[in-house]
Amino acid sequence: MNWNSRRISAILANALLEDQATRDATTLATIGPAQKALATIHAKQDCVLSGIGCVQRIFEVFAELEGEARAYPQVRIPQETFDGVRLRRGEVVGTIRHNARVLLSCERLILNLLQHLSGIATVARRYVDAIEGTSARILDTRKTVPGLRQLEKYAVRCGGGFNHRLDLSDGILVKNNHIDLAGGVEVAVARALANRKGEQTVEVEVRDMRELEDALNFGAESILLDNMTPELTRAAVAYIRGQKPAMKIESSGGITLENIRQYAEAGVDFISVGALTHSASAVDLSMRIEAV
Predict the structure, then answer these.
(1) Is residue 120 scored above 80 in pLDDT?
(2) What mean pLDDT is predicted for residues 215-239?
(3) Which CATH architecture has domain 129-278?
(4) How confident is the model at residue 222, as a pLDDT?
(5) Exactly one of 165, 175, 191, 244 is catalytic; which is it?
(6) Which of 24, 107, 140, 205 is catalytic?
(7) Is the pLDDT at 69 greater than 90, yes or no?
(8) To which CATH superfamily is domain 6-124+281-291 assigned?
(9) Is position 205 annotated as part of the catalytic site?
(10) Separation CA 221–CA 189 (nearest Å)
(11) Is 252 in a helix, a strand, or coil?
(12) How distant, in Å, are the alpha carbons of 165, 196, 216 from that of 159?
């Protein structure tokens, strides 16, 4: 992750502006401008870390918004701590020595991001572990918090998952609504093949064997098996492999930690899980700030 990219900087700036961090009434009223402090971030539960690289950048963006030249904080991260590492309860994630006012004003954003992104990474790791030993890969979806997609998809990678489309321009996925509005699978797929840009693969979503047969007959290059049972998925995979052995197959819909291994063992290449981003709970991290 390039934490200095314009898109990430804009996300962090918007978050600081939303919190009016440079106008922290309580801190400005109670803490002297020259006070120094040391913040220590602890993991209060076992989790997978994501977002630690944003900490330094938050302070840089804060200084830009404040319009004042400040010495950079001393952010120290243990050598064995990095995005994607498994943390144990009680471990120190990192320490920050900086101006006390700035630490207090940025505390909530730092924790919000670390807790949210680490929550996604932790859930992603559980799904990845659940299918260990199979050839399937875990994918995320576009079911992300508006404005945070790049960060959330990064967190999925920290957990061992892979990214599906970043946005609507990032590939062709012909879904049921496209098929209905276009006038059927044949028309929708033909238009997609004729109008795609560059090397885009035309993936088609199917819900049953009849739709699968139509998709294959009319030129689909990749198949998404939507809301099929593990048993039907296995049958669909066997049918596809018999027709087009090299075709990539994805499963999605109704997939949980309890049943995901059945889908992986059915022979699909990818399993996309919206819950990685839309249902991940924040992990418990704390930041203790003390005067130095």
Answers:
(1) yes
(2) 97
(3) Alpha-Beta Barrel (3.20)
(4) 98
(5) 175
(6) 205
(7) no
(8) Quinolinate phosphoribosyl transferase, N-terminal domain (3.90.1170.20)
(9) yes
(10) 10
(11) strand
(12) 17, 32, 34
